[in-house]
From TrEMBL:
Keywords: Coiled coil, Membrane, Transmembrane, Transmembrane helix. InterPro entries: UPF0478 (IPR009293). This is DUF948 domain-containing protein. It comes from the Bacteria. The chain crosses the membrane at residues 6-24. Residues 27-79 form a coiled coil. The keyword Coiled coil applies.
Length: 153
């Protein structure tokens, strides 16, 4: 029985040795895997650092662009306000011109008859002037004819 006991202990020791060898191989493989993961994480950390720097630069540029857009928007608002003011001015000017046109139309309508009378009197005066000049010329011609007749005697 003692032999069985020694054999059992020897068998347990061999089994434990085999177990330790397999666990050792597994741990070495695990160590290699962990080293590979560590190297990969270092590479990822470097890449992440680069991405962080680029993101920071991009954020700064975005902030600068946003400020520029705000300034240009404010400038554009002043231009829009100025154009709106010009539109109001043109509208007021248009209204004033319409009022003046209406006033002139009303005055023309009211004074049509007067203008017509003035034109008629002007025509009469022009005709009288023409007749007076004709008489004057006729008198001159008659006077010249008389002088010529007197000279011819």
């Amino acid at each position: 029985m003692q032999i069985i006991l020694y054999l059992s202990v020897a068998l347990i020791a061999v089994a434990f040795l085999v177990l330790v060898i397999f666990i050792s191989k597994t741990l070495k493989t695990l160590q290699g895997t962990l080293d590979s993961v560590s190297d990969t994480l270092k590479g990822v950390e470097k890449q992440l650092d680069g991405v962080t720097r680029e993101t920071t630069l991009l954020l700064q540029k975005t902030n600068t662009l946003a400020e520029d857009l705000q300034q240009k928007s404010a400038n554009l608002n002043s231009v829009v306000d100025a154009v709106k003011g010009v539109g109001v001015t043109v509208s007021n000017f248009n209204g004033t011109l319409q009022n003046i046109t209406k006033t002139v139309d009303i005055q023309v309508e009211e004074s049509k008859e007067k203008v017509s009378q003035i034109i008629q009197w002007s025509n009469v005066i022009l005709e009288l002037k023409d007749k007076w000049q004709e008489r004057k010329e006729a008198k001159k011609e008659a006077s010249l004819q008389v002088k010529q007749k007197v000279r011819s005697y």
